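Hey L., structure's done. Input below.
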Amino acid sequence: MLARTLPFYSSRFFAFVLTLVAVSLLATAFASTTSPEERKSAFPGEGALLARVTGASERGTYTEGYESVEKIGQKVIVARIDGVISRATEELVDMAIDRAERERALVVFEINTPGGLLESAFNIAIRIDSSTVPVVGFVVERWAESAGTLILVTTHIAAMQPGTIIGSMQPIEYDPVSGRYRPVNETKVINPILEFLDERAGAKGRNMTAIRMFVTHNLNLGAEDALRYGVIDYVASNLHDLLNQMHGRVIRLPFTEKQYVLDTKGAYIERFEPTIRIKIVHTLSDPLLSSLLLTLGLAVTLFSIVSGQYPAVPIGVLLLALGLIGSGYSVNITSLFLLVAGAVLLGVELFVTPGFGVLGITGIAMLAVGLALLPVSGGYSFSREYAQSFLYAAYSIGGILGSLVGIAAYKMLKVSRKKPFDWTLEGKIGRAVDDIGEGREGFVVIEGEYWRAISLQPIRAGDTVRVLKKEGPLLVVERVPGSVPEKED
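Output:
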């Protein structure tokens, strides 16, 4: 699916007229590029709607006007584009290409996706075109539908495993809250997509007739048909088979005017692992999960406000923030919001409210998610030894600080669970220090502390006394019956 939140309109008559004109033009183009015998065998069931690309085997061999040919491919960086195309996929592609450019390596994207955000697919295609090293798209396992097809056809080399399919690029309008979607037929949306594909995929010699039909007719093609009709370059059973087939091919990068000869036999393959930030955003980008988070977040927030359970409001806000990330909202802005909100909640819990409860736990969760979503990519280049020592140091410091925080949180939680008690002097037993006459003051010792006391009956020094009550700084005491005055040493 190509997800696009835009209004759309449909006119059946206008679409019918456009279809007739398109069919006539495509039939003319088809007739001019193929012989009668070829036309009989090309695209069974599609007739003249698909034009066949001639000279497909010669693509990538033209060198005039480009820089000198450079070998590349002894090192191959392989990244996986799996699941829904999202902001996380953009970051994955960008980081993998940056890594390949620094190391002058070939980059291969293994694609297995049902589609995703149209804007993300556009951004990925633009990043591929700005790459200074060749980018290979390889459809594996099942499919590369919709946004996945758009990415595949804009790579410098496109390949598929047998049994995989591509196509169905018509954009849809998707509602993440309800989960409903409907196809977009408005020309203001369709035409820019077609023009984008003409510029990005057409520059790489792809069969634009078939690619246009991916958008306008939701055409789907298997691996062999896609190769035969010039949509892809290779059909390979696995990555090693693809690298062997590509060996010796000359690749032009039309947007950066670079040219390479692929030297991929016996290449060293390195798997590119996504960061924690990419993994979290990719997980949240699942339409079902993002819809669930948005719905739950909205429900928790509203019910908490209506019922007066305000400490639960931050939980709803956290769920809403995670749902917005999955719906394509800016990850950086959401990360900053979670860090600020988490710090505020933790401060309120520690310094304003007694104990440690929902606010503190939610604040810690917000801080943890916000830190995990921080953008940590950058143009750093360290030696392997330095990076390893830095990693060990970071783990050690993080472990120590985490342990201290954990101990402090445990102590606070333990104290918060203790039953409250009121300290009082009433009923305490002590000893008279002075002779205390009726209605007069004197000193007594209660639990090791000297207090001024008054009695309603005569008390002699050394008598055992009991505290009746406390009136300001004075204690009202009485003599314990049967007590014997303590002898002075």
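The longest strand covers residues 135-145. The mean pLDDT is 78.

-- N.
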